[in-house]
Amino acid sequence: FVDHLYAALAQQGILTYKDDETLPRGERIGPTLLKAIQESRIALVVFSGNYADSSWCLDELAHIMECVDTKGQIVEPISYFVDPSDVRKQKGKYGKAFRKHKRENKHKVGSWRKALEKAGNLSGWVIDENSHEAKCIKEIVGTISSRLPTLTTNVNKDLIGIETRLQDLKSKLKIKSDGVRIIGIWGVGGGGKTTLASAAYAEISHRFEAHCLLQNIREESNKHGLEKLQEKFLSLILKADVKVGSEIEGRS
């Protein structure tokens, strides 16, 4: 499940850190992983039935929940074939694991319990035998995309009048309506048409399964032909290396 989730996040262009290393019980959490947790905006925690058996996983979780308090990190919990109340209250397999931890990791049990309780109280996803995992992954990736800051907030915030024009353009797009919608932006050269279109793209593109920004179409088609633009467009939309033999083939 985590492997498919990771692939979907990467395909969406979200820089994701996944730790594949396992440490023997009792070893300390590694500095590389600590750094990755601290520098992340969002932490996805997948609670499985045997999650609490691992002191390594519990150390990770404790550090993640610390980053929630100190850095405002967002945590998205996923309960994978486990009852969220078992996570929150350390019941079932989690209770059994903690009875063992009391003997082997007594000095850490308190902080682990607090981390599990705090994470278990957060709203997240529950995946069980009735869930459609591919659909759940799609929803999770969409939620993560929407919670990440957009390019617009970083690049265009100082442009005078951009916010009003952007809101006007977005209202005309009617993003949640059905069907196809085409918007034309007309004006003199240097008036900010491309800047406005780019700002809109940066702000809303994450809402779509596929998206592409093609610029300088007239110049590029005159230089290289429409086939090259078609290849670029199709490759970005389909997330695959597409070659087009002719303009007609590209259209089809």
From TrEMBL:
Look up keyword NAD and say if it applies. Answer: yes
Does the UniProt entry include the keyword NAD?
yes
Q: Residue ranges of the TIR domain?
A: 1-148
Instruction: List, alphabetically, the InterPro entries matched.
Output: Disease_R_plants, NB-ARC, P-loop_NTPase, TIR_dom, Toll_tir_struct_dom_sf
Protein keywords:
NAD
Fetch the Pfam families from UniProt. Answer: NB-ARC (PF00931), TIR (PF01582)
A GO molecular function assigned to this protein is:
ADP binding
Q: What GO biological process terms does the UniProt entry carry, in alphabetical order? A: defense response; signal transduction
Name by which UniProt lists this protein: TIR-NBS-LRR resistance protein
Q: Please spell out the taxonomic lineage of the organism that makes this protein.
A: Eukaryota, Viridiplantae, Streptophyta, Embryophyta, Tracheophyta
